[in-house]
Amino acid sequence: MAVMCLTWTAALRDVLLLRDALCLLWVGGWPYGHAAEVGAPLTTDRGTVLSDQTYDVVERVEYTENGDSVVQWLRWAILIVVISIIALAAFAAISGVFTPAAPRTQAESVLLRAKAAVKVSPGSGQAWAQLARAQYLTGDKGRAYDSIAQARKRVKDETILWVNNQEVDMLIRDGKNAEALKKTDTYIQKDVDLRIVADAANKAKGISPPLETQDQRNQTTIQLFLMRATAEMNLKKYKDAVVSYTNALKMTPNAADVLTYRGLAQLKAGDKKGAKADFEQALTYMPDYTPAQAGLKAAGGK
Amino acid sequence: MTDEISNTSELEGESGDRYYTETVVEVVDNRRQRVVLIIILVIALLALLALAFMVFRLNRGTNAPNKQSMPKGISWVRSIYGWSNSPADALSAPTDVAVGPSGTIWVVSGHDTIAGFNPDGTARQIIKPKGVASLEGIAVDEKGNLFVTDFGGQVFEYSPKGKQLDQWRVQLPNEIDVRDGKIAVAAANGVAVFTPDGKIIAKWGSRGTGNDQFDLPHGILLGDDGTIFVSDTQNRRVRAFTPQGRLMWSTGITPDRTKQGAGDFRNPKNMAGPFSLPAGMAFDGKGRIAVVDPFKFRIALLDPKSGKIAREPGKNGKQGRQAFYGDFGQTDGMFAYPTGVAYDKTRDWFVVADTANDRVQIIRLPYTGGSVTSKAIGAFSTPCCVFCAPLLLLLVLLVLAVLRRRAQREAEAQSGEETNA
Questions:
Q1: Are B372 and B379 in contact (CB under 8 A)?
Q2: Cα separation, B307 vs B289, whole angstroms
Q3: B172: which residues sit within 8 A by CB, 6+ positions away?
Q4: Longest dimension (CA), chain B
Q5: B78–A104 C-beta distance less than 8 A
Q6: What is the pTM of this model?
Q7: What is the 3-state secondary structure (H, E, C) of B157-182?
Q8: Of A81, A94, B189, B362, which one is least surrounded by beta carbons within 10 A?
Q9: Nearest CA in chain A to B383
Q10: Which residues neighbour B92 within 8 Å (Cβ) at sequence distance 6 or greater?
Q11: Which residues of chain B neighbour A135 with C-beta distances below 8 Å?
Q12: How far apart are CA B176 and CA B161, in angstroms?
């Protein structure tokens, strides 16, 4: 009972405070007036008004004659804007703008599916990594890195390489090139280690994995080298980037786009001859590949 | 607030048997009061603007595409991915779309569901008919009733609430259109026209590549003069027929099936014509025919009289580029094997069944005959209008209240002066 009384008193106080605030805004004065006590004589510099007529006078002062027209208009404008803010927020909340009933863009749809996948198989690291990607693309960067950590906890096999790639990709997109570069060092080593383990296991079993699996596996490594090269390019370490591209090309020697990237890196590093060779080679695989054509022109070729 | 009372004058009068004193007090406006109020107003206005911007951004959805990221001519309005936040309620390979009289967007999804959406993208009605094999095409009549083809060999009529009204048999029907009491059905090997109660008016065609033949037509359209437009999908041509079935024009290059590899889409020579696989059709605001091509990932606009590809108005009275819009991609504003299209005349937008992306996209194209009113209505067909409209109303009411109060005060002041006089 006592608590209830206290709550009610507090609520009443809040209401009174709100009234005071509105009064201050609306009529420009405290509701208690300039002459605080009813019945007290109003003092001015022109003498004293008779005390039994003071009450009427005070009323008139406060509520009708306070402030000039500019002030009045300002108060109206503020009130309208404040009510607009409240109405806009309320109706936006009602019409589901803050919490949409269904996805409205591709990113939201991908996020929804990724969340569902994690719900179905919470133990799958790949699902978590996919969720991280979706969260990153919808602008939820903090949670994206958390999801990567979750994925890392759950992955035990070679899928970890894919998770690593997601993380490096996010870091580069965030402009954290130095950190990305540092991480790729470890991840490339991890890749090599896992390859050795897998090869040994396959040899022991006397099998060789199907070409398709090998290709998928190589793609992950190539992607890592390419991302490393991108980070190096962003940090203007062009010579290092050339090395990274060369590493990628070891696995996919005929990739016109990678050759072109290496050509561009060599061009930046000042090796026009090497660049020209790369662009020319790229054009033998894809004769109408415009970036290679433009690169060749820049390298002084035809 | 530190108002200063600078001047007091007294007036004495008699009211009944009681004396009262009216004191006119002039309050010198404190400059500080104005400054404070202006600061409050500016802060409040900034807050309102920030909120409005945030609501606008949220309303479009995260990562909504900008104009630069889209193919030339296309402006994206919104995408519809499903009718709830559950993945089970997501659209799945939508095959066809139709627009109802009040702008309702009807979608055939997953070959077994008919989903109705409001123009703002929110769900309206989900129909899951029983005993259907593979739903393909959809059309809506003037009353809002739905006509749906089931490739298993049926045509169904449903009320907007999902009640089955009628049903009749047609062999392998793909696409359907309804206009002025006529129902045209494009089936795998021909075209048939029915009355609303399913009685046949005309039918023609057989399956093949010949001049009077069809090969899996996936689009049909009834013109206002009774002309029937058919996109003869596998024959890669769009054709116009008189109501009796006489060929008027034909656009597109039909592959010679007797040659080896003529149907191979990987060969660029086979993709040379204006269409690779013309599918769904719709009339735009100017009465031109929009044909969606899933293998060219684009919408083409055709002149209904000649069948030629329409052109955009160019500079200096010359003709501009051909009216092809769209490109392949997964992001919003791009297409992946789109198969159905519909046009909303009131809102001047196209609704596209973007099949492989599992979504329906609402887009606008240039020069489609939309008026300023249609653009305004279109702009307000968003969840935005739900709060913009009351907000505007509120502002109008407030302004009216202010004006009324002022008028009242003036009247009071005048009557006061008169009394004093």
A1: no
A2: 9
A3: B151, B153, B187, B188, B189
A4: 117
A5: yes
A6: 0.74
A7: EECCCCCEEEEEECCCEEEEEEECCE
A8: A94
A9: A95
A10: B109, B110, B358
A11: none
A12: 20
Q: In the numeric block, which tokens belong to residue A39? A: 């019945």
Distance CA A88, CA A83 (A): 8
Calculate the CA dihedral of residues A121, A126, A129, A134 and round it to 10 degrees: -70
Q: Are A96 and B26 an interchain contact pair (Cβ–Cβ within 8 Å)? A: no
Positive/negative CA dihedral, A151, A155, A161, A162 = negative
Instruction: State the SS3 of B237-284.
Output: EEEEECCCCCEEEEECCCCCCCCCCCCCCCCHHHHCCCCCCCCCEEEC
Which residue, chain included where needed, has tokens 């007294």?
Answer: B10
- What single-letter amino acid sits at B166? D
Contact B118, B396 (CB under 8 A): no
> Which residue, chain included where needed, has tokens 């684009």?
B298
Nearest CA among B313, B314, B290, B294 for reference residue B303: B290
Q: Per-residue confidence of chain B (421 residues) as pLDDT tens digits?
A: 444 444 444 444 444 444 555 554 444 456 778 888 899 999 999 998 998 888 877 878 888 888 888 899 999 989 999 999 888 899 999 999 999 998 999 999 999 999 999 988 889 999 999 889 999 999 999 999 999 999 999 999 999 999 999 999 999 999 999 999 999 999 998 999 999 888 999 999 999 888 889 999 999 999 999 999 999 999 999 999 999 889 999 999 888 777 777 777 777 777 778 999 999 999 999 999 999 999 999 999 999 999 999 999 888 888 889 999 999 999 999 999 999 999 999 889 999 999 999 999 999 999 888 777 777 777 666 655 555 666 677 778 878 888 888 888 888 888 877 777 6
Q: What is the number of alpha carbons within 13 Å of residue B407 lying toward its C-beta?
A: 6
B332 contacts A95? CB cut-off 8 A: no
Tell me which residue in B55, B59, B62 faces A107 most closely, judged by beta carbons.
Answer: B62
Residue B282 sits at φ, ψ, to 5 deg, of -160, 155
C-alpha closest to that of B74 among B297, B251, B257, B238: B297
Query: Are A91 and B390 a contacting pair at CB < 8 A?
Result: yes
Distances (CA, A) of B95 to A228, A242, B357: 42, 48, 11
Which is nearest to B285 in space by CA: B372, B343, B221? B343
The residue type of B174 is N
CB contact under 8 A, A57 and B80: no
CA distance B127 to B83: 12
Question: Among candidates B220, B338, B198, B354, which has minimal Cα distance to B289?
Answer: B220
Amino acid occupying residue B399: V
Cβ contact B251:B307 at 8 Å: yes
Number of neighbours of residue B165 by Cβ within 10 angstroms? 13
DSSP code of B196?
A: T
ipTM above 0.85, yes or no: no
How many CB contacts within 8 angstroms connect chain A with chain B?
190
DSSP A37-66: STTPPPEETTEE--GGGHHHHHHHHHHTS-
The alpha carbon of residue B295 and the mean position of all alpha carbons in its chain are separated, in whole angstroms, by 23
